[in-house]
Amino acid sequence: MKETEILFIHALAFLLAGCAVGPNFQRTENALGDVRLDAADTAGHASRISRGEKVPNAWWALLGDPLLDSLEARAHEANLDLQSAYARIDQSRASLGIVAAELLPALSAHASYSRQALSAHGPMVALGAPSFAQNLWQTGLAALWELDLWGGNRRLREMAVARGLSKVYEKEVLHVALSAEVAKAYILLRGMQSQLDIARTNERIAKEFVSLVETRRTNGVATRYESALAKSDLEQVSALVVGYAHQCKLLMNGLASLLAQAPGSLDAELGEHREVPALPPKAPVGLASELARRRPDIRRAEENLHAATASIGVAQANFYPSITLTGALGLQAFDRRDLGFWDSRWFAVGPSVSLPLFQGGRLVHELELKKAEQIEAALLYRKTVLTAWHEVDNALRLFTDEQKRTERLRLSFEESERAFAKLERSHREGEIAYLELLTGQRNVLAQRSSLHAARTQSVAALVALYKAVGGGWDDERLIRDSD
User: Fold this and answer.
1) Is the pTM of this model over 0.90?
2) pLDDT, averaged across the chain
3) Which domain holds residue 34?
């Protein structure tokens, strides 16, 4: 079909419909209407999850660690990725201002001076014009206004607004991710410091074990093989100490990077060992019906779809005539002193119409391109929603399972402590040697290490849960950034 035929069909449809060109965007009220926040609640192990209560913006405060609160505040203030996001929002605001200006008339003032002469052999001189050099002074005003009859510029502004909101939600996605990254790194650091303390205790015990085995070997009770095993075990434990210390350093540097600080700048502040924050009695996760509005990545995808829908209207408006009103008023004279006389005035006013008759198929293909981009944006929106659903379900199950695992390991640790207490009593009564007591103590430390690791992962699972439900940003900040 030729472009002129398409133009005629579109113009006829527009006159019949009496509305702006392009599809109107329809928002989805509840993109996650089928999601359940109790999918992972089994055997009462998810009793910490509180449904119906609003997700706290600063959810990390539930952990009750002032140092973590301070790190979060500083990260949200100084993080370079966030600062870049704010710069992109400023860019989108400027772009919106440029687009909005297209809906308004343009007014300009001008003034010029030139000295010119006509060719003595040119047609104007042949008609009687003088060929000598003359001055020409001009000044005046010019106005231009393109009538937005088909709504193309309004669709363009709608698209710019949607893209601007997309940038705002993109910044909020970074807020959510940053909150989770800071909390996760801090929790892992505290967990690794606990492992380091346990490993150092194990190293001390291993050294005592080697000393005892060497003494027994000197007395002919132990063999060279037992001595070699004890020394090998000591080296393995010492290697763990080095590895845990290295991981602590990496985590502190990672936090420094999130806060836009130099490596090692947080070592003094974070180097002192503290326990992993305890889980809060209740973890509010909000309502399932609010989840789609809580997740800024879903709202970003929605605005991208909105922008893609509006761009179809922009492309369709290009098929219609463009009508521009122009006007100019000014003064013109060969002598500057004559500019003040009424006879030096000049003006021009009138409309101009531009109708695309043949563009080599460009307009048709542009419209096809925008429709294909809208389809892609719709698919990305659906994928974002589906991904959010999976993340919430996985995070709920992980949080539940980690609590169950921690409970099992707690019971195991308590049993190992009771067993070690019996060993200590037997040693005091002379029933077992000190070597057996050291072995029992190391078994208890191994159980403690597993329990600390489980507790760390349980709190980290809470961080993942709040990231999944969209914690870490608030609508009030979004409104401020959108103004």
Assistant:
1) no
2) 85
3) 23-104+154-317+367-482
